[in-house]
Amino acid sequence: MEEFDVLSTLLQAQEPELYNIPTHAQGPQGELPLTPKMLREWASGDLFGLTQNVGMGWEPAKVANKHILMISTQGGIRAEDGSPIALGYHTGHWEVGRLLRAAAGEFKHAGAVPFAAYVSDPCDGRSQGTAGMFDSLPYRNDASMVMRRLIRSLPTRKGVLGVATCDKGLPATMMALASLRQMPGVLVPGGVTLPPEHGEDAGKIQTIGVRYVHGDISLEEAAQLGCRACATPGGGCQFLGTAATAQVVGEALGMAIPHSALAPSGEPIWEALATQSARALLHQIQLGMGMQDVMTDAAVRNAMVVHAAFGGSTNLLLHIPAIAHAAGLRTPTISDWQEINRQVPRLVSVLPNGPVDHPTVRVFLAGGVPEVMLHLRSHGLLDTSVKTCTGHTLDEVLNWWEQSERRQKVRARLLEADGVQPDDVIMTPELARERGVTSTVMFPVGNIAPEGAVIKSTAIDPSVVDEDGVYRHTGPARVFTSERSAMTAIKENVIQSGDIIVLMGRGPAGTGMEETYQLTAALKYLPFGKHVALVTDARFSGVSTGACIGLVGPEALTGGPIGKVRDGDIIQIILDRENLHGEINVIGDGERTFTSEEGAILLRERPPHPDLAPDPLLPDDTRLWAALQAASGGVWRGAVYDVDRIIEVIEAGRKALNI
Predict the structure, then answer these.
(1) DSSP 136
(2) pLDDT, tens digit, for every residue of 271-324?
(3) Catalytic residue among 136, 260, 439, 541
(4) 191 close to 263: Cβ distance less than 8 angstroms
(5) Is 212 helix (H, G, I), strand (E, B) or coil?
(6) What is the pTM of this model?
(7) What's the number of CA atoms in the CB half-sphere (13 Å) around residue 318?
(8) Which stretches make up the Dihydroxy-acid/6-phosphogluconate dehydratase N-terminal domain (predicted)?
């Protein structure tokens, strides 16, 4: 009888009216605005959709007006006063419902019928160092696919507004919008959180564990600093990581309205952007524009140029090709990135690259993307003939910005509020050069990375770079096959100044290409960390700094030579930050030294590391993602699903196996 007592307690109902259950309802009053033509020609689903609309309470006479779909990454449940009823995964999707509400109000005011659908997103900061990271990059493709299915599942939509903020949800939203082709779309970047008045940013705060272990902070300091790092409840992190960089790229592509990236979440200027974006989408519909008018090869190149000028996250090397692929455009190659980064000066002084670590809200106040584009235009680095989501060309947008009241007021506000000159945050190319600011990314090769690798070379500590602008480091390899074991070694002082950490087996096939920020963050905030390099087939967070080389190809688990490096091997790293050329080579085995060519032979003849294997916690979903993106061309093509190539591989396999 005990189990029945438990069930009775669980299902106990004190209120008698609970059982006063109706079996009919009156239903909405009025009539659908049907015409004989609609009844003859519309699909039954379109007609039934009107019934659903009035069933949800929309005014019957207006249910057939222009249908607009809003897709967002909203997460959590907020009360009307903003207090939490159920938490989201992160601040980035916590407040975006306010943007949806503002945009919906504008659509409704214009006589349109807004719909809202949600595909929430995870937090890379929350999953750092955990098995949750194994779903991070694969999630992007899945979310974009679900968004595209949701878009197609509302056949009456006339345009799509995407609202998103953070590391994977925002690229997924941009991929979905890019795929619209003839249909208009607008992106609303969800903004950034403000830094605390006294405390640390959301990047540095992720190192309280290792700093406590090394005695750099007390338990009380860790608790207090950790409490206030997210000083406002909404928006992406305060540094130019993947989330902020993706917002910048969305605006640079022309998907988002001018000066919308990096707005402070929750503030009136941020909320107004949703209303203005809604107007832009309605204007596109009126003009007969489609996303294909905005998403062009020239727009993609502009976004890459702006990425270089900002010094953005290397994760966008995965996301921009994926967005281009979704739009049916040419996929940028490593040589394209190299060419652009050699031509384009870095102009923005911002966390985490410096030279002064301004938070992203200061970049917004200094003028954000359009201010950077003014400098790039004056040096002939942009194609300003491209169309933007406003219906105007980029040239027209920049002409407006240069003379706008908005520009004058936000730049004046930065000086008034923080005493910071806008031109010290977004610099001229001449001033940036004078202050020693170097280009963003480079792609070293060598016998460890014959297919290449990537490093945000601008994030290397200048104090360890030689006077000729070259970073040179030769040291012993400290080999790890799990991020946890590498992190333990750092905490327990196994890693010493001069070491080169080699983290293998953490690419797509091993972990879904996890992000290893906790390692780079730990090294950044330890006294000897700038004298330690890191080489891995995993990837890095956009907030990572230091001599950290990632995306090493081929990855270890597909036979890459990085998987054959042994503890004690001597590795030589040479990175020319001025000419953007670099090499990573094994040049010794602990007993003797040799040439890089001899090192290549050694690695080719060695068996893989005995501990090399996919992570035992790797989900089947991620294994499938890894196989599909590999068949599609791998990470250098954006880790996308190229359906034609996947089908070709499957058919070839079926024939080979005689299935």
Answers:
(1) H
(2) 999 999 999 999 999 999 999 999 999 999 999 999 999 999 999 999 999 999
(3) 541
(4) yes
(5) helix
(6) 0.94
(7) 32
(8) 90-396
